[in-house]
Specification:
With about 350 residues, the protein is of the alpha/beta class. It is built from ten helices and 13 strands. It comes from Nocardiopsis coralli.
């Protein structure tokens, strides 16, 4: 477990509130509190766990507010380390909970689907991706899906201003990490909450869900969103407050570096396809370079790796560099030969 940082006042009525994720190597999520003329709002809430709730409650009290007095919470996206405590916060304080409509839709669908049906559906996706039977058995044995977060009651679209009198906190839609991911620009203080869209060191996960869906282009959206935040006026003077790691400046440079990383990954995948010929998603994913050796990954990590791989394949398809063949029960991918140069 990573060492927990302390609660910090960052100036301009903004506080950093680290909330632990028990049993997870990520360690914690930074929740932020923004004070206004009539109360305060939170940016994200943290993981749904008693230890996390206690940490959030104590941290809010350190700011001079109380959990019961929180006005509302803006969720950058639906993932459980960001949205997990939304329902408990609303029950304790009557706070409104806001999220982008695209992620509200996902939260509603997750809430309506029993956990065992989600596990069965995920196992079916892995089978169609070509995962071996031993991986499927391991997946069924180890998968313990977190409960979906409470469904938000307010939709926050791109450009909308958060209900916080005396402050100008504006939503910036940055799809990719999730379909409805939001960054938030505190215009009156040159502060930019990046959520999981721009992190200072690691590259945020971008996956295709459901795994073998042909709808959407999450990585294409993500790269376009990186370019968009890099074009924010005076982007590099903003204090960037991410959900993980540490605060930073130099938004446009970091956004460009993240996009470049994915371009390099696309080239690596194209080269693998040219060498392999037609290949299953499992064959492609297991043949790529990862921070941890493929043989050492637990099957849940392999599933995340496959989701990331197929998001890259989708973008290669959109760019005409790869094609999907095979059957619905076992899709295959192949490289598309570049057109011959004119003589």
């Amino acid at each position: 477990m990573r060492e927990m940082p302390r609660v910090e006042e960052l100036g301009h009525g903004v506080w950093s509130l680290p909330v632990p994720i028990p049993g997870n190597p990520l360690g914690f999520t930074y929740v932020y509190l923004v004070s206004g003329d009539d109360g305060a709002v939170l940016v994200d809430t943290g993981w749904n766990h008693e230890e996390s709730w206690d940490a959030l409650t104590r941290a809010v009290e350190r700011t001079g507010h109380s959990i019961e007095g929180i006005r509302g919470a803006v969720l950058t996206h639906f993932h459980p380390d960001h949205a997990g405590l939304a329902g408990r916060l609303r029950a304790a304080s009557g706070a409104w909970i806001a999220m982008h409509p695209a992620d509200i839709d996902i939260t509603e669908r997750l809430a309506a689907e029993p956990a065992h049906e989600r596990v069965t559906a995920l196992a079916g996706q892995l089978r169609r991706a070509g995962f071996p039977e031993e991986d499927l058995a391991a997946f069924a044995a180890e998968t313990d899906l977190p409960e979906p977060s409470a469904v938000p009651d307010l939709a926050l679209k791109d450009g909308d201003t958060v209900d916080l009198p005396g402050r100008t906190l504006r939503a910036v839609w940055t799809p990719g990490h999730s379909p409805g991911h939001l960054c938030l620009h505190l215009d009156d203080a040159d502060v930019f909450f990046t959520g999981d869209h721009v992190l200072p060191r690691i590259t945020p996960h971008v996956g295709q869900f459901p795994l073998l869906s042909t709808d959407g282009d999450p990585l294409g959206d993500f790269i376009a969103s990186q370019a968009a935040v890099g074009r924010i006026p005076e982007a590099d003077r903003l204090l960037c407050l991410p959900s993980h790691e540490h605060r930073f400046t130099g938004l446009s440079e970091r956004a460009g570096a993240i996009a470049e990383h994915h371009e390099e990954r696309l080239d690596e995948m194209s080269a693998l396809l040219r060498h392999a010929g037609r290949a299953t998603l499992w064959q492609i994913t297991s043949g790529l370079t990862w921070r941890r050796r493929w043989a050492d990954m637990r099957v849940r990590a392999r599933h995340m790796a496959a989701a990331e791989t197929v998001a890259h394949l989708r973008l290669l398809e959109e760019r005409g560099r790869a094609t999907r063949t095979g059957t619905p029960d076992l899709p295959l991918w192949a490289a598309v030969a570049a057109p011959a140069s004119p003589a």
